[in-house]
Amino acid sequence: MWIRSVIGLRKFLMPASGLGLNVIRYNIGGGDNPSHHHMRFGGDVPGFRSCENCDYNWTSDANQRWILLAAKERGADIFEAFANSPPYWMTNSNCSSGGQNNENNLNPDYYDQFADYLTEVVKWYKEEQGLTFRTLEPFNEPTTGLWHEFGNQEGCNYILDYLAMANVIDKIVAYLNIKGLSNTTSVSIADEGAFEGEIATIAAISTLQLIGDHALSYVSQYNTHAYFGNSRIPLFDMAKNDGRRLWMSEWGSWSSKDMSASIQLSEEILNDMRNLKPVAWVYWQVIEHAPNGTYGNEYGLIGADFSNSTISLDIRLSFYGFAQYTNFIRPGYQIISTDDGDTLAAQDASNKTLVLVCTNKYNASDIWNFNVSKFNLSLFNVYRTSNNNETLKLLPNTWNITDGILTYESPANSITSLIFNVTQ
Ligand SMILES: *[C@@H]1O[C@H](CO)[C@@H](O)[C@H](O)[C@H]1NC(C)=O
Ligand SMILES: *[C@@H]1O[C@H](CO)[C@@H](O)[C@H](O)[C@H]1NC(C)=O
Ligand SMILES: *[C@@H]1O[C@H](CO)[C@@H](O)[C@H](O)[C@H]1NC(C)=O
Ligand SMILES: *[C@@H]1O[C@H](CO)[C@@H](O)[C@H](O)[C@H]1NC(C)=O
Ligand SMILES: *[C@@H]1O[C@H](CO)[C@@H](O)[C@H](O)[C@H]1NC(C)=O
Ligand SMILES: *[C@@H]1O[C@H](CO)[C@@H](O)[C@H](O)[C@H]1NC(C)=O
Ligand SMILES: *[C@@H]1O[C@H](CO)[C@@H](O)[C@H](O)[C@H]1NC(C)=O
Ligand SMILES: *[C@@H]1O[C@H](CO)[C@@H](O)[C@H](O)[C@H]1NC(C)=O
Ligand SMILES: *[C@@H]1O[C@H](CO)[C@@H](O)[C@H](O)[C@H]1NC(C)=O
Ligand SMILES: *[C@@H]1O[C@H](CO)[C@@H](O)[C@H](O)[C@H]1NC(C)=O
Ligand SMILES: *[C@@H]1O[C@H](CO)[C@@H](O)[C@H](O)[C@H]1NC(C)=O
């Protein structure tokens, strides 16, 4: 059944434009030592206190502030603040990209000031901008060992220093209380690079275990990045067991001109949704500096040359590849099981819409036969992104359902979203 022009339905099924994302993570800058010049473009995030005796300067970080508030205006409704590094003047190395020889870098004399700083930013946004961060995350990949002085982006190691992390959490909770924020903002940790793995000490699950029950009792949400690890299942089990919200808070892949970045992105989403089962899946990052239309060395779904006074946006194929998910599997949808590893299935809360996102990662076309006999499907739309100039393209009728079996042929290296109306 094909009805092309049911305006109300299409409006319901698809956001007007863009990716339709509703979660935004705001990077509370440390700000680097003003005498240092070693960060890549965008690697140092302007802080709000540029020295120990300086006042807070709320005109700082104008660009990111603009994006945050513009996202809110456009419908983003879940906000998290996180820090890659404390301000340089709270660190051992006097540098916000990390310590000398990759050593741990938060000066122990500054646990209190770091917590005060982060919560002051949260308070300012709430009271002055009407924006409430639901969670505050003080760490980023704290035990991966990646962060060193004179590096190209902000970072701070806490290797085997679970006590320092626990202290920071304690102080944050105290300040959230003092500042009247504890009803609206809670703590999330630890944004490790891996969910679980051979090098256990850099994995989300071990940091959460080793940080101690006292600190963990203050934490409402477990965040993990999905770059590394063996099995995603133990962290899901732990979050479930502990009654904590679980986020896949960061993943990204190199950009590409063809579908390969989209396929990689899709495979990650499929694996994460199937095994880690986070309630939010957050991409790093939507737009990145890519001088002169170059590709490869960054993660942007959109590339832009921010050093050029004329900023033109290069909307990449991976933007549409991601939109194949985000435009249709909307907040509140429930992921339902399928026995096909290349397909993600979801239903809206009222069970009136069924979405299948199917990835053909192969270099040849593939015919899918889905047994959808348990659903009473009336009409549906199909969108596809592929190497053949298809960017979220609404397709003509290329499928059929016979005796409960939906047959659909996908071209090589493509992602297809099938959106059904379900009648009860
Ligand atoms: C840290 O850097 C600041 C700014 O360059 C400088 O004023 C200060 O003396 C430095 N502190 C140390 C301990 O080197
Ligand atoms: C506050 O930050 C803005 C933006 O970076 C800067 O132009 C201004 O000089 C700063 N004010 C002070 C008092 O440092
Ligand atoms: C937090 O919420 C509780 C229960 O709703 C309320 O009694 C308390 O006054 C609130 N505290 C603050 C600081 O808003
Ligand atoms: C971009 O192209 C312009 C003009 O050709 C050139 O001046 C500039 O160096 C290029 N920038 C980079 C980062 O390659
Ligand atoms: C700036 O962007 C414009 C428009 O895309 C382009 O023609 C020009 O070469 C760019 N300049 C540099 C220096 O990259
Ligand atoms: C939707 O379906 C799920 C299981 O398939 C069920 O648990 C849930 O109650 C249904 N919701 C409604 C509103 O019917
Ligand atoms: C598809 O072709 C590319 C380029 O020839 C190759 O690198 C890749 O491994 C192939 N993918 C599969 C799934 O066969
Ligand atoms: C489709 O699935 C149903 C159970 O949901 C089953 O009864 C039926 O035999 C299946 N059809 C085919 C062709 O396998
Ligand atoms: C399927 O939907 C149609 C149209 O609403 C309805 O007539 C039919 O009774 C439904 N069948 C089942 C098994 O629910
Ligand atoms: C995509 O569209 C462009 C411009 O319309 C055309 O030149 C190109 O051949 C098309 N590529 C494919 C793979 O269809
Ligand atoms: C159903 O769709 C498939 C895939 O597009 C096609 O090969 C097949 O011929 C179609 N069957 C009917 C009966 O239309």
TrEMBL record:
Residues of the signal peptide: 1-18
The UniProt entry, under Pfam families, shows: Glyco_hydr_30_2 (PF14587)
**Domain Endo-beta-1,6-galactanase-like: start-end pairs:** 17-193
SUPFAM superfamilies in the record, alphabetically? (Trans)glycosidases
Q: Which GO terms describe its molecular function?
A: hydrolase activity, hydrolyzing O-glycosyl compounds
Q: Does the keyword Hydrolase apply?
A: yes
Keyword annotations:
Hydrolase, Signal
Checking InterPro entries in the record gives: 6GAL-like (IPR039514), 6GAL/EXGAL (IPR039743), GH (IPR017853), Glyco_hydro_b (IPR013780)
Q: Organism's domain of life?
A: Eukaryota
Asked if the Swiss-Prot or TrEMBL record annotates the protein with the keyword Membrane, the reply is no
Protein name, please? Glycoside hydrolase family 30
| Organism of origin | Gigaspora margarita
